[in-house]
């Protein structure tokens, strides 16, 4: 198992667009698939009314995990930090955030995960037959 | 977007073997890929020394997320609960838990996620070109 450098982690974060966002809403831990965009070392996610938006208003603890487990060599990257509701800036500045979303729900809001720690690792996988 | 029944969620949990486990270790939120096995409505994960085992000793808040985002209709299931270190029972009772693991690290311990809530949803995805 190899530890990835922070630079390698950000390169993978830039390359991918789908991850799993964990966040703590009051005393409930949630993990959900999300589309995301990285800009200026911050992770941006489009969202509508609901738990993620509420969690961002509460500056909830959160972590975005991305991985690729398909090959013989797998990797995973974790960005830990807190959520914030992005309320500033013209809407068009975030147009690309909304358009990467796969879900057909209304997403007028953008939340950001401000990283406190970025870690990653690469490892060989041995699948059972 | 359709809400899955608890029965549908468990059927998907039985069918799959890879998920993302979120857990809170003291004040750090982690999300990591894991191999898992479902037995008696409990999620079992083999692990070695490290954060997951420590989190299980602390009965940490945790959530296992599984999904399939590849088709035009995607789904995700979330099991929320707390971790426990499984210290009882003969080792052979958990042999299948250890053998599903893809990672070549030593895994002498089994932790379980005892579900407090199981939820899932199915949704159409609209990928950007």
TrEMBL record, chains A, B:
Record-linked InterPro entries: Pyridox_Oxase-rel (IPR024747), Split_barrel_FMN-bd (IPR012349)
Alphabetized Pfam families for the sequence: Pyridox_ox_2 (PF12900)
Name assigned to this protein: Pyridoxamine 5'-phosphate oxidase family protein
Organism: Nocardioides aquiterrae
């Amino acid at each position: 198992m190899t530890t990835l450098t922070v630079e390698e982690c950000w390169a993978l974060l830039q390359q991918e667009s789908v991850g799993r966002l964990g966040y703590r809403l009051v005393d409930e831990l949630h993990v959900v698939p999300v589309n995301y965009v990285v800009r200026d070392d911050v992770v941006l996610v489009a969202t509508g009314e609901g738990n993620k938006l509420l969690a961002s208003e509460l500056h909830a603890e959160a972590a975005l995990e991305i991985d690729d487990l398909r090959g013989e060599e797998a990797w995973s990257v974790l960005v830990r930090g807190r959520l914030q509701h992005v309320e500033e800036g013209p809407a068009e500045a975030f147009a690309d955030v909304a358009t990467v979303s796969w879900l057909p729900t209304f997403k007028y809001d953008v939340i950001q995960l401000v990283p406190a720690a970025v870690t990653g690792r690469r490892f060989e996988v041995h699948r059972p037959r």
